């Protein structure tokens, strides 16, 4: 939907190939939803899909985009460098959702930011805003948005506890090690990686976990107990999927 740090659009095929048999789950949950890109690669229409992200601006954005009036609300707003810098200063997560104005501003700065690591103080890049306005009106996208059962902004632990069941599949894409500070309006720290591993080991459902490799993963998720799959990007770190099925 929009550029976002940690976006998995280019990995959708790799992730989809490693999801479990479709007969073993009917609920799909992302505790770290971001822009929910992996969800759009799932072709099933018979599942309960749950979007969650602790950043209240992301929850608000999804609630607003799901409303067909939002596309009309933003349709006449131009792509403009001065407006971009103005909205950067006006981003405020302390809102009552849904809030069309703040959703528009958040989408505006995400779509026009040169760097997703510097959303609120970065440089302007033209083009993304007009593409976003078109994207949210496409029929396939509208259908996928309408199929989202619940849009929430919980701590990941509360999200997992709420939606865990034997029929649940969690796609878990946390901030990666040493990138925790790249994200805005969240409470995930370096210590949270271990905490996450302990949480996932005790769920009833299935999980598919994304990471870049670091040594502690071998202790927390030994390959004798968990399945590991690797995807290599030339000149970059290896993407790993760790699964309990």
Features:
about 240 residues, seven-stranded mixed sheet, about 15% strand
Furnish the topology, listing elements before pairings.
Elements: H1 12-17, E1 27-30, H2 37-40, E2 48-52, H3 56-66, H4 68-74, H5 81-90, H6 100-112, H7 128-135, H8 139-146, E3 148-152, H9 156-163, E4 168-172, H10 192-200, E5 206-212, H11 216-220, E6 227-232, E7 238-243
Parallel strand pairs: 1-2, 1-4, 2-3, 4-5
Antiparallel strand pairs: 5-7, 6-7
Helix pairs in contact: 3-6, 5-6, 6-7
Task: Explain the overall architecture.
The chain is of the alpha/beta class. The protein has one domain (9-243): Rossmann fold. Helix content is 36%, strand content 16%. A seven-stranded mixed beta sheet has the order 3-2-1-4-5-7-6, sandwiched between helices. α5 (81-90) packs across α6 (100-112). The model has no long low-confidence stretch (mean pLDDT 94).
Number of domains: 1
Q: Largest sheet, if any?
A: 7 strands, mixed
The poorly predicted ranges are: none
Q: In what order do the strands lie side by side in the largest sheet?
A: 3-2-1-4-5-7-6
Shape: globular
Give me the count of strands: 7
Roughly what is the average pLDDT, rounded to an integer? 94
Q: Classify the helix fraction into a percent range.
A: 25-40%
The CATH homologous superfamily is called Vaccinia Virus protein VP39
Portion in strands? 15-25%
Distance between the termini: 29 Å
Strand-pairing-aware structural class: alpha/beta
The gyration radius over C-alpha positions equals 18 Å
- As for the CATH topology, it is Rossmann fold
């Amino acid at each position: 939907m929009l550029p976002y740090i940690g976006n998995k659009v280019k990995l959708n095929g790799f992730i989809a190939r490693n999801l479990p048999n479709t007969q073993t789950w009917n609920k799909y949950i992302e505790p770290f939803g971001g822009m929910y890109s992996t969800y759009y690669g799932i072709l099933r229409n018979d599942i309960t899909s749950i979007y969650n992200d602790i950043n209240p601006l992301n929850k608000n954005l999804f609630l607003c985009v799901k409303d067909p009036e939002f596309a009309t609300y933003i349709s006449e707003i131009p792509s403009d460098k001065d407006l971009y810098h103005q909205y950067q200063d006006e981003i405020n997560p302390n809102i009552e959702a849904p809030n069309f104005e703040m959703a528009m501003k958040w989408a505006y700065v995400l779509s026009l930011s040169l760097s997703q690591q510097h959303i609120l103080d970065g440089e302007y890049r033209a083009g993304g805003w007009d593409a976003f306005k078109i994207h949210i009106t496409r029929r396939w996208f509208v259908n996928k948005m309408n199929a989202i059962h619940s849009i929430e902004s919980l701590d990941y632990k509360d999200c997992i506890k709420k939606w865990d069941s034997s029929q649940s599949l969690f796609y878990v894409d946390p901030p990666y090690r040493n990138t925790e500070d790249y994200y805005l309006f969240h409470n995930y720290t370096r210590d949270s990686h271990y905490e996450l591993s302990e949480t996932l080991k005790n769920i009833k459902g299935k999980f598919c976990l994304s990471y870049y490799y670091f040594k502690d993963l071998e202790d927390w998720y030994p390959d004798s107990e968990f399945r590991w799959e690797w995807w290599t990007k030339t000149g970059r770190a290896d993407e790993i999927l760790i699964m309990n099925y």
